[in-house]
Design a protein that fits this description.
The structure is a homodimer of 306-residue chains. Chain A is 33% helix and 25% strand. With 306 residues, chain A is an alpha+beta fold.
Chain lengths: 306, 306
């Protein structure tokens, strides 16, 4: 038992850092370390895993380096559409939002859905109305603007096909997430995303879908995914890891690695995930060139990209 | 092996029929028999399971007795918002739509998403734009109007809480669905719903969520669920049945019954599901007073309510 513990991710993909952008690399590591330190501190202070993953994802949403919240990419219409989900592994309660625009912290709305509504998921214009009705903080377009994201979008706008989020020189899947186990051994997961650059038609990825991009269950583990969402939906990836543990008798590491390196890899599904079980075991597999990630417990702490 | 085979449902719940509405009961059975006969005929003619479940669900969407398509209930704003999903168990491709308004056959749009886009799920205003862009048939408000649904909504509108779809004298969960195995042993599932009477804030239930309300995999089975959606989402019910078979070694009947009668029942999750495996075994468990349902293969055919 090595609890409490936390792990976070800031997206997966082919991430290339060399001499000319080594400063950017340090910024990413610094941002990850900041979120990790804050998240772990909350756990040490006795906050629940659900509180912790929500607040840690908020920190990542507020950082414009990641494709979620402030750093969200542009849709085909030049908007920012955000999805988020949170699940509590003790109660199996969950909350999710899809298609939010203008909301500063989508994960907070997901958490509110979990706590204060009879629903699990709300989406679209009425979900935005809900966020207004509940007085969540909204930001103007300028808050979400970044020249880098704009240039990425500008490059491909008008093309019929949707192109993925890019960062640095290689293709990268945005999305941020956190999984945690608190001092009582309860696990929780949260995920938030700005979707894909130039995405059209109200496409919803795996992030806000319980069982696909986000899942938590004290019996098995808490999981947050990042990658090419459609593969994660078809594979019901987060719940698949959980089921391999619960029904197949696999340990966390074996289940998570199998799903990412065999099941997904076989069908060309690129991405990764972070997972923690109630004993504090952490696993962060990915089948892409890199994944912004980090973990922290009483014994150990690190952040990595490649 | 008893293939091809098809099963359908038209929602679960406490369904009360007595002397004064025995005619309505006959109408339900007639509608179910019509859809079953048409669906089975398609399979005999060699149509794929995916073709078959799509077209069979269309027949149910066009019947105003069921809460999907034409018969969809009213939302809190007096609108009709529809969700649908379809999954092909051979390819594991899937398509889903949420929050469609005015579209005659939501399942057709889901099927188009599966076939003609790189996405699995689209939602909200842009999904409606997509349906218009692809020239799907739209209908006016009068097409979706029914005095019964209107009265149900009128009774509870303005109340803060969302009340469920009602039918006859007892509470009933709407939703229609079909599962089929074709002559080649491929399984598919499709689900379509008008949601819940007076639903607010863009609530999305389990029907359009792959793994929750709809799932298909040749290795295990095809499943379509009906019931209190939030419990089906938290339990990732459709994929849970599949995983109990794939990883837990259960047969279809054992897995489906366990999920409906034990796992869901324990947490108060009301509803049911229909499932078929690639050998043509069919299972249709429910933990409510009744479920509109039917099955047909070369040897057998029946429709039932209680």
């Amino acid at each position: 038992m090595n609890i409490p513990a936390i792990a976070i991710h800031g997206g997966s993909g082919t991430i290339v850092f060399d001499a000319k952008n080594s400063e950017l690399k340090n910024e990413y590591l610094k941002a990850l370390n900041h979120a990790l330190d804050e998240g772990f501190e909350m756990l040490k202070e006795g906050l629940s895993a659900t509180d912790c993953v929500c607040k840690t994802v908020m920190i990542l949403e507020d950082c414009n380096l990641f494709n979620a919240g402030k750093g969200s990419v542009f849709t085909a219409k030049g908007l920012h559409e955000m999805d988020a989900a949170i699940m509590d592994g003790k109660t199996l309660n969950a909350g999710a939002v899809a298609g939010l625009r203008g909301v500063k912290n989508p994960v907070l709305v997901a958490w509110d859905v979990l706590q204060n509504t009879p629903f699990v998921m709300i989406a679209g214009e009425e979900a935005i109305e809900y966020a207004r009705h509940k007085n969540f903080k909204f930001e103007s377009d300028s808050y979400f603007f970044s020249q880098l994201r704009y240039n990425q979008w500008h490059e491909i706008r008008g093309d019929d096909i949707m192109k993925l989020d890019h960062s640095g020189e290689g293709a990268k899947f945005g999305t941020v997430g956190a999984v945690a186990v608190d001092a009582e051994g309860n696990v929780s997961a949260a995920t938030s995303t700005g979707g894909m650059t130039n995405k059209a038609w109200g496409r919803v990825g795996d992030s806000p879908l319980i069982g696909s991009g986000t899942y938590a269950n004290n019996k098995t583990c808490a999981i947050s995914c990042t990658g090419h969402g459609e593969y994660f939906i078809r594979g019901v990836v987060a719940y698949d890891v959980s089921c391999r543990m619960e029904y197949g008798g696999m340990k966390l590491e074996q289940a998570a690695n199998h799903v990412i390196h065999k099941k997904l890899k076989r069908v060309g599904g690129e991405g990764g995930l972070i997972a923690v079980d109630s004993s504090g075991n952490i696993c962060m597999p990915f089948n892409t060139g890199g994944m912004y990630r980090g973990m922290k417990n009483k014994m150990d702490s690190f952040t990595r990209i490649l």
